[in-house]
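Example record used in the benchmark description.
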Amino acid sequence: MDALLEEQSRLVLKRFDYALAWQIGASIQSMAAERNLPIGIEVAHGASPVFLAIMPGATPDNVDWVRRKRAVALRFHQSSLYMRLLCESKDVNFHTRYRLPEADFAASGGSVPIVVGTVGVVGAVSVSGLPDVEDHRLVISAISALRDAA
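Model output (structure tokens):
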């Protein structure tokens, strides 16, 4: 979990706008197309999707998972993977502990908050369709690659 916190601290952006949201989303879409990954992808400003794609083989359920993972990242200002691991380490059920409905929140890896250094959390990048750690890694890879441009 410490590695996830350190990882997130390295992903702070200087700025975030809709053009960068599209770059991040397009980067993930390109990686997914090259590797034939059946995923849903979302880059959101706040809770509003700016980039949304469903890759071949993914289903509308992946879009719902993306929405629920994003809700976790935005509420806790931590990755959805971090929140899953935190609850597992304390042997508590995420939904019971935080009194949050399963229909709206998913503590499963794949959503990472977008943090702008002078502002804080402004949105989230989310992926669903692979095992949750792989979803998380895909998001981290895309943000890391574009971090210096932002």
